[in-house]
Amino acid sequence: METVFACDMNALDKRQRGRYDAIARTLKDARQELWELDDGYAFCFKAESQIIPDAAEFIVYERLCCPFFDFELSVENASDSLWLRLRGQDGIKEFIRSELNIER
After folding, report:
1. In angstroms, what CA-CA distances link 61 with 6, 33, 41, 67?
2. Which of 50, 52, 76, 82 is the most buried (most CB within 10 A)?
């Protein structure tokens, strides 16, 4: 069953929104690579001790307001990289580009 492609802007309370915004800024500043996927984007970070829980917490909040995303976190031991993949149905890439200010 496909989830409806719609954000719930009221899903986060004021405290959660503040924390989400702080984590999003941290992840944006820490991003090392960005790959476009067929069905979304992959963001690469150095697998540092605080980035890993920040990425997981980002997913917790993002799932509340945008349940249509498919999330994947993976840590590559050999390269010491953390990958956060955001995927979904048709239109998701355009949404991600718009929301995260990604230029083509």
Report:
1. 15, 22, 18, 10
2. 82
Q: What is the extent of the structural domain holding 68?
A: 35-99
The pLDDT tens digits of the residues spanning 3-39 come to 667 788 899 999 999 999 999 999 999 999 999 999 9
pTM: 0.89
Taking phi over 0 as left and psi of -120 to 50 as alpha, with beta for the rest, 2 belongs to beta
Residue 2 reports pLDDT greater than 80: no
Has residue 24 been placed in a domain? no
Count of domains observed in the chain: 1
Asked if the structure places residue 23 within a domain, the reply is no
Q: Which residue type, as a one-letter code, is found at position 7?
A: C
Collapsed DSSP state (helix, strand, coil) of residue 23: helix
